[in-house]
Amino acid sequence: MNHSISILAAACTACVMSMTAQAQDVAALVKDADHYRMTADNLQVDTQIQLFHADGTLNKERRYTVFAQGQRQSLVLMQSPAEKGQKVLMLGDDFWLLLPNSQRPVRITPMQKLLGDASTGDIATLSWSGDYAATLVGEEACAVNPEKQEKLASVALSATKHCYHISLQASRKGVTYQRIELWVGKQRHEPVRADLYVQSDKLAKQAHFVLDKPGVGALVSDMLLIDQLGNQKVTRVSYLGRKERTVPAEWLNPMFLARNPALE
Asked: What is the mean pLDDT of residues 168-194?
C-alpha cells in the first residue's frame, strides 16, 4: 500500500514539475515574441497609423512619437496637424488624454480609438508578458503575411509556417484586450498573428505582424489590424524608427503635462 502511495506521489510530483516547466517555457516564448517590438526597457518609437479604404487606397494617416518606458509607463505625443499638442499618458492601469488648451487631464480607456481600428492601447503597449497569463495550446500551421504592401485592400496571406499557439488571459484590469490568441513562429518565436478579444469575449480585431527582414535580427515593422466586428477594414500601424531613450520623470506626471503643453 505504501509502495503504491509512493508511486502515486512521485507521479503527481512529476506532473506538477512538468506543468511548471511548461509554464516557464511558454512565458519565455511570450518574452521572445515581445522582443520583436519592444527592444529595450525604455524606448522611443516613431509610429505611423494608416487607415485604408475598401479598395486599398489610403484614407487617413497620423504620426505619433511613443515613449515606451519600464513598469508599464508610456507617453504618446501626437504629431499630425489635426492632433498636434495632444498627448496620451499610460501609468499602469491608468490612461489620460491631455489636450493643449486644457489644464485638466481626461481619464480614458486603452480602447479609446486613435484612427481606424488602432486604439491608444495598441500603440502605447508594446509587450504582452507581465500583463497576461500564458498557456500553450499546441503547435499549428498558421498563415503568414510575408511582405509590406503599399496598397491594402485586404491582408494577403500567401504562405504558412509552423507556429506555437499561445492563449493569453488578462492578469490585470488595465489591459487593452481581455484575451489574446497568439501565434508565434516555432523556430524564432516571432509574432505572426493574434486574435484580440474584448471584455465581452467578442473577437474585435485580428492582428498580423510583418517583419522588416528575414532571419536573425528582424523586428516587427508593421502591425495590420483587421476589424472583426463590422467592415473588415485594414488599419496599418508602422514602426518607423526605434531608439533607446529614458524620458525625464516629470514627463510621466499627468499634472506636469497639463501645465507644460510643449515638451520638445
From this structure: 93
The 8-class DSSP code of residue 116 comes to: T
Residue 13 has pLDDT above 80, yes or no: no
**What is the pTM assigned to this prediction?**
0.84
Q: Please, are residues 183 and 163 in contact by the beta-carbon 8 Å criterion? A: yes
Per-residue pLDDT reduced to its tens digit, 123-140 = 999 999 989 999 999 999
Residue 153 pLDDT greater than 60, yes or no: no
Q: What whole-number distance in Å separates Cα of residue 127 and Cα of residue 212?
A: 18
In a domain, 138, yes or no: no
Mean pLDDT of 72-89: 93
Question: Which residues constitute the domain of residue 253?
Answer: 43-47+60-125+244-259
225, part of any domain: no
Cell numbers linked to 174:
488595465
Residue 58 has pLDDT above 90, yes or no: no
Exposure string of 6-39, with b = 16+ CB inside 10 Å and e = fewer, is: eeeeeeeeeeeeeeeeeeeebbebbbbbbbbbbb
Length of the chain as a residue count: 264
Instruction: Round to whole Å and give the CA distance between 84 and 5.
Output: 70
Q: What residues pair up with 166 in beta bridges, in sequence order?
A: 136, 182
Per-residue pLDDT, 11: 42
Q: Which residues of 129-168 are buried (b: 16+ CB within 10 A; e: fewer)?
A: bebbebebeeeeebbbbeeebeebeebeeeeeeebbebbb
Per DSSP, 129 falls in state: B
Q: Into how many domains does the chain fold?
A: 1
> 502515486: which residue's cell?
8
> Of 80, 101, 99, 79, which is closest to residue 89 (Cα–Cα)?
99
